[in-house]
Design brief:
114 residues; alpha+beta; Alpha-Beta Plaits; two-stranded antiparallel ribbon
């Protein structure tokens, strides 16, 4: 059994819907991180002060078998087909510790576990 990190970078008002959707699709939890960033377009300026966009990053570690379902649910919940509603992606995780309670089989260790 392998794990993947599913990350969604979204506007803050979509946080609750995205976390709920991720859990509904099989994620057992989520870490919420406040962030700032810029995109392809220039940041807005107001009297010489640059206004950066505020975002929320939702990170979930999920079993690789659930990645497609979680990614699809997150994408739909944030309405990512519309411009400015965020991005989502998945990355393989090669080493992990502290996920023993998330494993389906008692005593089974994830790949690379310490």
């Amino acid at each position: 059994m392998g794990f993947c990190a599913v990350m969604a970078v979204i506007p803050p008002d979509k946080e609750e819907a995205v976390v709920t959707a991720a859990k509904g699709a099989g994620a057992t939890g989520a870490t919420v991180i406040e962030a700032r960033g810029t995109g392809v377009k220039e940041a807005l300026s107001f009297f010489g002060l640059v206004l950066e966009g505020r975002y929320t990053c939702i990170l979930s570690l999920v079993d690789e078998a659930q990645v497609d379902a979680v990614l699809a649910a997150v994408t739909a919940a944030a309405d990512m087909q519309a411009p400015g509603n965020g991005i989502a992606f998945a990355m393989p995780v090669t080493r992990i510790a502290g996920m023993e309670s998330q494993l389906s089989a008692p005593g089974k260790k994830p790949p690379g576990a310490a």
